[in-house]
């Protein structure tokens, strides 16, 4: 499992020109799964996301978590995080989990995340336009 975390001032995701998810403050999460991912792995990743200290404290030091600042999450499915370019310029996606299984894990990830913070999402397997105001910029790749 991989989750690309971007600290955000505000962000939104559009499908067919319509906003389907938006947040004012928090993180944008690009989420991808591979063949060995389980619900246990997802549970651990959710905890990493909500406890990741990437928000400034009163001294301007990144020392606060999403929970501590009361932020939201915009979760976007992103199978291309498992792109492999070792054999040339055309990426292979063999390490990405198939859409049926990935959809179930993505839904589970979002439901677990909703236990802690407000979550907005894109639409799985749709062409999406994601508008992000990356704060910092802060971008961190979490891998299991």
What would your notes on this structure say?
This protein has 144 residues and is α/β, with parallel strands linked by helices. The chain is built from three helices and eight strands, in the order βββαββαβαββ. The protein has helices spanning 39-51, 66-69, 99-113, and strands at residues 2-15, 18-23, 26-32, 55-56, 62-64, 72-77, 119-121, 129-143. The strands form two sheets. Strands 1, 2, 3, 6, 7 and 8 form a six-stranded mixed beta sheet that branches. Strands 4-5 form a two-stranded antiparallel sheet. A hairpin with a 5-residue loop joins strand 4 (55-56) and strand 5. It is globular, with a radius of gyration of 15 Å. It starts with a strand and ends with a strand.
The helix tally amounts to 3
Largest β sheet strand count, sense and barrel closure: 6 strands, mixed
Helix fraction bin: 10-25%
Shape: globular
Sheet/helix structural class:
alpha/beta
Low-pLDDT residue spans: none
